[in-house]
Amino acid sequence: MNTRILTAAALTAAASSAALADGLDVWVSFADGQIVTGEADKSTNPVTFTPGVRVFEAEFGEIPGFPNLLDEPGFYTEQLPAGTGIGFNIVDALRVWNGSDFDTIGSQSMSIFGDPFPDGDVATTPGTAGMFVPGFEFIEADANGFFDDHPTFQLNNQADGVYLLSLELFTDASGIANSEPFYIVFGSNEDGTLGDDEAFEEAVEAGVDYVNSVIIPTPGAAGLLALAGLAATRRRRP
User: Fold this and answer.
1) What is the pLDDT of residue 106?
2) What is the CA angle 198-204-207, rounded to 5?
3) What b/e string do you get for 62-79 counting C-beta neighbours within 10 Å, with b at 16 or more?
4) pLDDT band for position 33 (50/70/90)?
């Protein structure tokens, strides 16, 4: 395994220089006794939320000098009960886009690190389709019900490609069920074998479109489209 080890201080500095704080994070909230995800756009002020989103995207290479490390997307909320803990589980192997679908499972894997990186908790994707890997609680809402946390994603055996990570969220809050599976589509090496920048972006977007249209159950599509038109805003925290 070609694992790049990086001190927490170096990662923080690199992330800051890449302006990773502004972007589209996973919005976490509760509805009807279950964790639900949405999209938090922190490039706006106040932060803009789009509920019902279950597919997110990110690109390795945003942190200069560390092509296989990334701390996007983050996880964001302003409305959970104070002290609520949130964690994740991995619900499938890491899959790679083959030009038409995400059926392919290769030798690649991805690790998710909690703070402090690289000495905190870590969970790694399995090598078998549909295999469940327990994750860990990585964040707790403060007294105002707020958190903004960015675990570190590490692409092991760094290689060009578009990859699909499948997760669910859990909580220590009583009576709240785990989230539906949600998905992060990662692009790796924008200047590599996938082609020029435009071809790379098209491959990533094709992967996102595939998840939205094929992997997420069709009966939920109409509801997701309806929810996408309902954007709520919350006060940005300093």
Assistant:
1) 82
2) 140
3) bbeebbbbbbbbbbbbbe
4) very high
What confidence tens digit (pLDDT) does each residue in 129-176 have? 999 999 999 999 999 999 999 999 999 987 889 999 999 999 999 999
Residues 6+ apart with CB under 8 A from 20: 62, 63, 71, 72, 150
Cβ atoms of residues 168 and 182 within 8 Å: yes
Bridge pairing between strands 182-188 and 55-59: parallel
Is residue 63 a contact partner of residue 18, using CB atoms and an 8 Å limit?
yes
For the chain, domain boundaries: 8-216
pTM over 0.90: no
Cα 73-74-76 angle, rounded to 5 deg:
135
- Joined together, the tokens standing for residue 134 give 């327990």
- 90-110: buried (b, 16+ CB within 10 Å) or exposed (e) per residue? bbbbbbbbeeeebeebeebbb
